[in-house]
Amino acid sequence: MYNRTSAFLNHMMLPIKPRVSRCISSIPLSLVVPTTVFILSLIVGMAVAYTQGPLNHPAFGDGAYFSGLARAMAEGKGYVLDRSPWPHSPDLARLPLWPWILTPPMWLLGSAREYAVLRGTAVLFHALGAVLLAVLTYRLWLSRLAAALAGTLFALYPSVLVLIDAGVSEHAWIVTTTAAFLLLLGQGWRQFLGAALLGLSVLARSNIVILPVMFAIAALLWRPELHRYYRRFLVLTVVFALPPAFWIIRNYEVSGAFPLLNAMEGETFYGANNAVVASDLDEWGYWVFPDLIPGEVPKQVLGKRMTEAELNRYYENKGMAFVRSHLIAYPRLTLGKLIRGFLPLPWVPRVTTYLASLPRLLLYIAFFWSLRSRIISNATFALLMIALLLVTIVTTVIFYGNSRFTLCLEPYMICCVAAWLAKYCTRASSEDDWRLMPFKSRATS
Fold first, then answer.
1. Residue 410 CB-half CA count within 13 A
2. Widest distance between CA atoms in the chain
3. What is the pLDDT of residues 228-278, one digit of tens each?
4. What is the tally of helices (H) and strands (E) in the chain?
5. Cβ(71)–Cβ(82) under 8 Å?
6. CB 179, CB 411: distance < 8 Å
7. In whole angstroms, what is the distance from residue 123 CA to residue 49 CA?
8. N- or C-end of the chain: fewer Cβ atoms within 10 A?
């Protein structure tokens, strides 16, 4: 009886097996890893979003401001924020890339689902970021295993996942910047498009505006022979500067202030340079709302007699006054900023915070361990990493220590760790298996 049943099933499967085989073989192998990473990232992102409650529950902090700007644009009101002290004036405080991205789905689905749009778009960009990091890893190390590991590690990385519910702009920055890196590793017109995309990423994170300067410093110190490519670098820098220049001109048109990229810089600078963060151990090296600084006039009161640009300048002057009057003690505050920003351990000593910081700590250990094996062999990517590190250090020293600043580095650290793990797993026989073409052929990248 068993033999007859088995023969019958084999006979029925004969016409199916070739079809299944043809379907599987028809999927391009190059799409298997990106597709798998994309689906995994969507599932993980949605699961994390739903653990915090319904998708449409109210957001707080920066995410609420970004969705408010997108809702206003979707409703035809322009780039205004009804929850600011200047609800009828064009907003100057929030950079526009993330609100621009949120506006089309907000217009399609309606403002009643404002926060669901915010988190749903964050999940989508989380998945896109994972795919692009997988592609970048393959582009650099020519390993599907490394690409799959990079996409998976990013999809599961807690420091990124927690930002989905917050609805902040980091995912937009990661997608734009990673796409720019991929193009900059190419040749010809791709580099110019990559420079433009990298400039566009400044409209998600304003501190990236100094990236070309940091790249030039890193190149001259590490690879001084690259000075012969200065003409191409200058042209790419001009292309990079176009998106932020557009926004600076827009801000000048609506406020008369120049140059002004982001009117939150003054508040951020003063909140990071004051007596509270300099002397209170709980806030040491961090940031506080200026309203919490003893003797400071509340922002809402100041907003009634100042424009947004004037308030930005007021806070900048207050912060600079503190720095000038505390030059002797300022190194101690700077030390606190660097510890806060770069030490992957929680400031508040609780079991839950230590557990939450463990993946970040492991990433840093694995990354530095991977550097010992010289895992980064592409000089252009190495220079971009060094430039990002310098940008992060400068940002931390000027403003404050925060894991959201160092997050700019961590997706690309994940790529390096993934390549190192793949190399370890496959027991590569020589380092050449993990290299692209020699740098001479890509010297203009």
1. 27
2. 95
3. 888 999 999 999 999 999 999 999 999 999 999 999 999 999 999 999 999
4. 21, 0
5. no
6. no
7. 8
8. N
* pTM recorded for the entire structure: 0.87
Domain boundaries, the chain: 29-442
Nearest of 114, 55, 109, 50 to residue 82 by alpha carbon:
114
Which helix (H) or strand (E) element contains residue 118?
Answer: helix 114-141
Nearest-CA neighbor of 200 among 168, 261, 243, 245?
Answer: 243
Residue 201 is which amino acid? S
Would you give the DSSP letter of residue 58? P
| DSSP state string for 273-321 | SSHHHHH-GGGTTS---GGGSTTPPPHHHHHHHS-HHHHHHHHHHHHHH
Neighbours of 440 (CB within 10 A): 7
Long-range contacts from 427-436, C-beta under 8 angstroms, 24+ separation: 431/374, 431/377, 434/141, 434/142, 434/143, 434/375, 434/377, 435/377, 435/378, 436/139, 436/140, 436/142, 436/377, 436/378
Q: Which amino acid is at 431?
A: E
By the 8 A CB rule, do 194 and 381 touch? no
